[in-house]
Amino acid sequence: xxxxxxxxxxxxxxxxxxxxxxxxxxxxxxxxxxxxxxxxxxxxxxxxxxxxxxxxxxxxxxxxxxxxxxxxxxxxxxxxxxxxxxxxxxxxxxxxxxxxxxxxxxxxxxxxxxxxxxxxxxxxxxxxxxxxxxxxxxxxxxxxxxxxxxxxxxxxxxxxxxxxxxxxxxxxxxxxxxxxxxxxxxxxxxxxxxxxxxxxxxxxxxxxxxxxxxxxxxxxxxxxxxxxxxxxxxxxxxxxxxxxxxxxxxxxxxxxxxxxxxxxxxxxxxxxxxxxxxxxxxxxxxxxxxxxxxxxxxxxxxxxxxxxxxxxxxxxxxxxxxxxxxxxxxxxxxxxxxxxxxxxxxxxxxxxxxxxxxxxxxxxxxxxxxxxxxxxxxxxxxxxxxxxxxxxxxxxxxxxxxxxxxxxxxxxxxxxxxxxxxxxxxxxxxxxxxxxxxxxxxxxxxxxxxxxxxxxxxxxxxxxxxxxxxxxxxxxxxxxxxxxxxxxxxxxxxxxxxxxxxxx
Amino acid sequence: xxxxxxxxxxxxxxxxxxxxxxxxxxxxxxxxxxxxxxxxxxxxxxxxxxxxxxxxxxxxxxxxxxxxxxxxxxxxxxxxxxxxxxxxxxxxxxxxxxxxxx
Lengths: 504, 102
Fold this sequence. Notes:
The complex is a heterodimer of chains A (504) and B (102). With 504 residues, chain A is α/β, with parallel strands linked by helices. Helix content of chain A is 39%, strand content 11%. Chain B is mainly alpha-helical and 102 residues long. In chain B, strands 1-2 form a two-stranded antiparallel ribbon. The two termini of chain B are 41 Å apart. Chains A and B meet through helix 10, helix 11, helix 12, helix 13 and helix 14 of A and helix 1 and helix 2 of B.
């Protein structure tokens, strides 16, 4: 085990804290120092709450010293995506319209983290209102990929993934509407999980698309993700779409890590043309390892996948345009008066505030959604997209009748250079092809790093998908593959990431 | 199945921006009018998939209306609710005039 506290996994830290080898204050200070040293180059954080994190750490250390029974992850620091409300700590969603907003309440996920005693290091960068696949649409500047700081970390949760990859935090919370946890995981060599829709409360998660959004863990190992998933998951009366059942036994599944006899389906439509050769090669090798370990691997077809991207880019903007109507400059958020108007109406103030406060991608999606929902087009666009969800859902159900989990590359490409797709929204949208189906049909997905592409030496992710409420299957299969890969590599993938320049 | 619809003009974007209450500049209107048709053409493929017999899916898991017991619970204090308001007056949000638009 490494002696550098920032390199330890959450599980290792939890163990070291429980046996009093180390205090939460020491761990928290080490991570805050690391953030101070490398985040100038990475920009994973929009806000660092050193004071709050150290106070929470001291509190946990006191409670542990007094013999109190604590949560397993108590004292292990965490970073939270800036789309979840944190009482007393700024929450901007990466948008100018919420600059300086201090929420008066905690999201349920935040409340669970605090109740379990995890110090919150700060809020992580993201595409504005989680709209984007590169974190370049943050109003506060992009996050840089720790593997190559000239490249994107993925998005929208590039900040959470980069923070974990750069050893600024062992754990982070992400949110995933079309891949915003999994794709940054793939591009930064980290683990990201989108739980079953309704598995984690959305209360206090600033909504982009209410029927697609889901919060989940961002970590460096499968077991750490399971530990965090168990902590944040479960029924919440404050979220009417929350599943009123216990969290699947994800930690036990991650510890089982046995694919013998597991039926795995390779999704035929998610590969080949449009997928980078190095991505395809690492994916195929990983599947071969699973086969060698006793899994039964077959190819399956999900014919309606061809229409999933189109459905997603209708449902998501439609719901987003509706959800973002609440930013009206009346009760909170930035209010900007229209120029050259001494006595503007509320409607005029609303329109000028929204023009000043929203960025290009948010405006693009609001206009697209407004169009798809408008009279005369509703049936053709939004209505048709909802029917595609039904067809896609039936196709997935048919596939899961024959296999336990599905696999595909998480992202068709590795991390591309910053700025590459910024002016071509459609090209950026196409990168979400493998991740969005899970959101449309509400199933869980996990991205696991499976190596580096030969052509650019950048991380590649493999995605596992399971039926709704069978999140445990993801953890079992991914933990098995993680072990097989690390045996082959003789260590973790992230141990091969270039050392970041440290600023003292 | 519905009639396929395609095409979006600059005037359409002006109208939509009004509906969405965003005071887009001329440059922004030009830009969106230029790029939205390609995006719409791509997403229009959804119109080819399902017939009238396929039900629409609004949520991936069945959603029922959820009621809670009618009991008083802690809620935001007025000063907390108003703390982030651009303007407030006597425990109320202060907003610009709501009538008199042209």
